[in-house]
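User: structure tokens for this one?
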Amino acid sequence: MPLPTPRLSFAEVLWPLDDQVAMLKCTVERRFQKNCEVAFREILEEGSFLPARAILLPEDGTLDDPHAVSIYALTKKAGLEVAVIRGRTASLYRRQLEVIGYANEPVEVLMSIQGSLRTQKFSVGINLPEDFDEYALQGYHTDPANRPKWLSDPSPVQKRRITRTDGGDFTPDEQRKICCWKAKQTGNSSLPRTIENAVAKGAAFEYELLTVAIKAFAL
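Assistant:
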């Protein structure tokens, strides 16, 4: 479906990596599973090295919850509703939008669809702190220090001959990108916090995300 163009985007923001910073929770209801499958396939086909994007859209009269906020996955083909924010969380989210001057407006965020085409069961994660209004009022999302280059650079990473076991054949940003790509391919979280943690851990163990990603990009 055609979606409104948001005035506010958090799609290039790296939020604090502290585990105490809780991210906003959403629900994938049974009615969204097919859309999740379609979006999951389209995201894989695109082969992007960046996290997928979504639009959070407050809509009136969503089923039995007038405060619900719909989440639409953005792909090259369409915007597909894949999850919803409900109840008290949705009411608070709407209030937070009012506080920062974007009442009932669409907001762009990074998202991750996790799951398996084999089981056809999917979950959705979005990259937005529960207290995003406090960060926004402080100007966190506009500070260049919180907008790393890799989240705005869509250029692909090329495969190459691997000469090092620590990932040193790739720049740190290339490591982030191939980890993001591999996470999407395997149905795991591809949100920035996961990717940053994977690069920080390094490639010391066989099943670490960075190790697996490097193997996938070896000539």
